[in-house]
Design brief:
about 525 residues, alpha/beta, 7-stranded beta/alpha barrel, immunoglobulin/albumin-binding domain-like, 19 helices, globular
């Protein structure tokens, strides 16, 4: 009996945040939390599945910014120090809560969690998570692909194909550095697609990408197989459409599994609950409260009425939700099989950070879903490359402009709160293209200056900054980063216009922004236009 194919895609990305000029920096916690709560738990899950010989296929997109941070020695040292502080706090919490058995049990639970995390990171993985992912790809369980260099939302730069090319070329360069081969597919940041983008992908030998469901539904011709098979752009690059209905079982804030009252409340943390003097050593100076990872409450009820978190009750709900999702997959498979002329392919993509970080129980749910698919008779996991080997001939059509963001287009990255950034970024892109024309084939010190100008342009293009501004979280930091990258670029531009190079400034700035060490400023050449 033929089986429906499941394409599970996890997209792992964080903005490049590294501040050696400070002994501690608040936003570096984004990285520390994601490693602790998402990347290491996912690795544990992958290893358990391999140990038990459970077959699985997952596509994992690792952004160049994230890869760079995972490999950075400064951030590795700071991450270990972060874990050591978390363990120290856990020891204090075990002592503080010893008069309350339920709270104490949770304090012991978290202390053990952080101790295990430190042991695995230091002693098992030797602080090299890139190697762990490389090994998983080598055995065929995980297919690693990449995304745009700094996760730029590409539709907002379609008038500058040089910039889109630079985002893709720098990404491939970083991927090859860490994984020693070029990826076959590409994760468009936030599934942001515009007609014609496939030409730049093909020029870079990328065979497929992912798009929002309406990108295919609203294509120039009716998709004969709907979103249950990839479509082929006129130039031969394939587009895989997201299965919106299945994804919403997890993504929906109201009805998704992570909203269940049995699960751990992400926002209720002792960093905000406990007395300032007690918690001060574990927050940021002078008295900026932060998440510590010690979260004792479940989602249920209002803030003053919340129940204590019960890991056993949460585990039971994980099992129920995994069975429900498998039932939904099987039901969708049976219904869809009657509509298409081959096994339906359900592409189910998620931000990896949903699992473990935002949804603490997420990795356990994912593991049970994978085990359920492996033991059943109706579903089989399949990555896009394997699918295209089996079915190389697919319907040709032109996908429509789309994204998986709010309202399906650009409103998250271009609204009244953040539209001001683009006149500055677009201006810098135009000046960068001008510099490539004015200073071709440079070497030595002037090339270093030009290379850093290209680095600053890529960094200011990151989609995280307008996203953060639009959401109203960490707005000051996001605005500061955009202004800093624009300012730095203009320093380079002004120096080159005066035919001078401030070597002291350049060296200091290069040490701060260590991403793309082998960048060549000519990736912004207009000769690479589609």
């Amino acid at each position: 009996m033929s089986k429906a194919k499941i394409g599970l895609v996890l997209h792992a990305h964080l903005p490049f945040v590294r501040h050696p000029e400070y002994p501690k920096f608040l936003e570096e916690n984004w990285f520390f939390e994601a490693v602790t709560e998402t990347y290491l738990p996912l690795i544990r899950m992958f290893n358990r599945l391999r140990r038990d010989e459970v077959p699985f296929r997952i596509t994992l997109s690792l952004s160049p910014t994230l890869m760079t941070m995972l490999a950075d020695n400064l951030l590795k040292e700071r991450y270990v120090a972060h874990l050591e502080r978390s363990i120290e706090l856990g020891m204090k919490e075990v002592e503080r809560t010893k008069g309350d058995p339920e709270l104490n049990r949770l304090a012991v639970f978290y202390l053990s969690f952080f101790e295990r995390t430190l042991f695995e990171y230091n002693d098992i993985y030797r602080r090299d998570l890139i190697k762990v992912f490389r090994d998983l790809e080598a055995v065929g369980s995980v297919s690693i692909i990449t995304t745009a260099a700094t996760h730029g939302f590409l539709p907002l730069y379609q008038e500058y194909p040089e910039a889109v090319q630079a985002q893709i070329e720098a990404a491939l360069m970083t991927h090859v550095t860490h994984f020693r081969s070029k990826p076959k597919g590409f994760w468009l940041p936030d599934c942001g697609y515009y007609p014609g983008l496939e030409h730049i992908l093909k020029r870079n030998d990328l065979g497929y990408f992912f798009t929002a469901s309406h990108g295919v539904v609203l294509a120039n011709h009716k998709a004969e197989r709907g979103i249950f098979a990839p479509v082929k752009c006129p130039n031969g690059v394939h587009a895989f459409a997201r299965s919106y209905e299945l994804s919403q079982a997890i993504w929906s804030e109201q009805d998704g599994y992570p909203a269940d009252y049995a699960y751990r409340d992400f926002y209720r943390d002792i960093g905000y609950d406990l007395d300032l003097e007690y918690i001060r050593p574990y927050i940021h100076e002078p008295q900026v409260r932060v998440f510590t990872g010690y979260k004792y409450y479940a989602i249920s009820g209002k803030k003053g009425e919340k129940r204590l978190y019960n890991p056993e009750a949460a585990a039971q709900r994980v099992a129920e939700h995994a069975r429900n999702f498998l039932y939904t997959l099987e039901r969708s498979s049976k219904r869809t099989t009657q509509l298409v002329d081959r096994e339906p392919y359900f592409v189910i993509p998620f931000d990896a950070e949903l699992f473990g970080h935002w949804w603490f129980e997420g990795p356990d749910w994912l593991e049970q879903v994978i085990r359920g698919m492996a033991s059943g008779d109706e579903l089989v996991m399949c990555n896009p490359g394997e699918y295209l080997q089996e079915y190389p001939d697919n319907q040709e059509l032109q996908p429509a402009f789309s994204s998986w963001g709010n309202d399906g287009y650009c409103s998250t990255w271009l609204d009244g709160s953040n539209d001001w950034i683009y006149r500055h970024i677009h201006g810098c892109i135009e000046r960068m293209i001008e510099l490539v024309d004015r200073f071709p084939n440079q070497d030595s010190l002037k090339k270093r200056f030009l290379d850093h100008a290209a680095r600053e342009v890529l960094l200011m293009m990151g989609s995280d900054w307008p996203f953060i501004i639009s959401n109203g979280t960490s707005m000051n930091y996001a605005e500061r980063r955009i202004r800093e990258h624009v300012h730095n670029f203009n320093i380079v531009y002004d120096n080159l216009c005066r035919n001078t190079v401030d070597t002291e400034w350049l060296t200091r700035t290069e040490k701060k922004y260590t991403i793309f060490p082998d960048i060549d400023y000519q990736i912004f050449s207009r000769h690479k236009r589609s």
